Amino acid sequence: MAGSEYNHGRRKDLAMRNQRSFSLEFKRQVIEELLSGESGPAQLCRRHNITSSLLYHWKKQYSRGKFNNEPIEEGALRDRVEKLERLVGKLTLENELLKKGLQYSASLSRRNGKSSGFGDASASPSGGGASL
Length: 132
Prior knowledge:
The longest helix has 39 residues, at 73-111. Helix content is 67%, strand content 0%. It is elongated, with a radius of gyration of 30 Å. By secondary structure, it is mostly helical. It has 5 helices and no strands.
């Protein structure tokens, strides 16, 4: 058992040593060739010995301007949508927290016999009083 663990660890070390690293310039050139229609995805993958998933990962990064290039409108819009979705989520959580705090405050006031003025019909401007 110990021998197989050793071999497994050794194979992993070799795989890590053989992992290639690509420059931003190279990635940009490959994706620009893909986008120009000069070469198809399969051709590029074969020529550069890369997987299609890596190619499409680079394409996504390129569209967002990650390779020292101007972002493609679609990628920039996708980034903006994600940013706005995060903001909506944050505001929704804050809104829920404020609602619960208001409900808690109102319930404490009712227990103490005091009116908070929130959600009270008699406290509303149209709830009575002198009319003009």
